[in-house]
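Inverse folding, one chain.
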């Protein structure tokens, strides 16, 4: 078994088990490169149409919406209901 994955990770989150440290670093590098290229475009100078990062386990979206979440919806989202 590769050193960057544990049996506990494989058992608790099997859907994330394909994401090794190398995969996370590659995704981060691609996101950074896409952001640098975007910054030099007309959209980047006007701060619009920002590229979305590659979805990967352990990374939450930068923004959840434009308005604050209602308390009952936040409880549902957190799994507290």
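Residues assigned per position:
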């Amino acid at each position: 078994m590769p050193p960057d994955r544990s049996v506990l990770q494989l058992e608790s989150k099997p859907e994330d088990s394909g994401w090794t440290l190398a995969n996370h670093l590659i995704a981060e590098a691609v996101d950074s490169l896409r952001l640098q290229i975007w910054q030099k475009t007309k959209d980047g100078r006007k701060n619009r149409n920002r590229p979305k990062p590659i979805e990967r386990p352990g990374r939450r979206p930068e923004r959840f919406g434009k308005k604050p979440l209602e308390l009952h919806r936040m409880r549902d989202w957190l799994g507290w209901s």
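The chain has a mean pLDDT of 81. The helical segments are 7-12, 21-39, 42-45, 71-78.
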